[in-house]
Amino acid sequence: GGARKSLHLPLPKCSWQQRVTPTAVVQEIDHLLDEHTTAQIADVLNARGFAPGAGSAFNTRMIARLARDYHLKPRYDRLRERGMLTLQEMADALHVTPHTVKIWLRRGLLRGHAYSDKNESLYEPPGDLAPRKKPGAKLSQRRLEATVPPERTEGVQYAT
What we know:
Blueprint: H1 15-18, H2 23-32, H3 38-47, H4 60-69, H5 75-81, H6 87-94, H7 98-106, E1 112-114, E2 121-123
Antiparallel strand pairs: 1-2
Helix pairs in contact: 3-4, 6-7
C-alpha cells in the first residue's frame, strides 16, 4: 500500500480565542492614546474598519478595558510626561481661577488637550505669551494667537 497523506486542517478556535483582540489592534490603540481619548479611539477604529475579537463595534468602555488589560500607558500620564499642566497648576501659574482657565481655553487663549471623555483637559504651559486678566478689555484683544483653536469638536453657543 501507499503512504498515507496526513491532512493538516486548522483546528477550530475555542470561543475565548475568537474573542481575543488582535495584537495589531492593541498596538493601534497604544499609538492612538498619544493624541486621542477613548471615545475618539473607538470612533477612529470603527471608521477604519477594525473589529474587536468579539466582532461587534468598538465602544469607549471596550477601549478603556483593553488599555487597562494590556497595561497601556493612560493618556493622562502621556500628556503629563509631555509637560502638560493640570487645571489647578495652570490657574496658579496664571494667577487666575480654574473657571477663568476654562473660559480662556474655550476662547482660544490657551491650548488644552482632552485626556478623558468628560471634557477634562491638561494644558500646555503658557510661556512668555500668557494671557493676563485685563478688566474691561475684550477677550478677543487678549488672544495669544489668532490661529490657536481649542481642541474641542463641539460648538459653544452664546446668547446675544
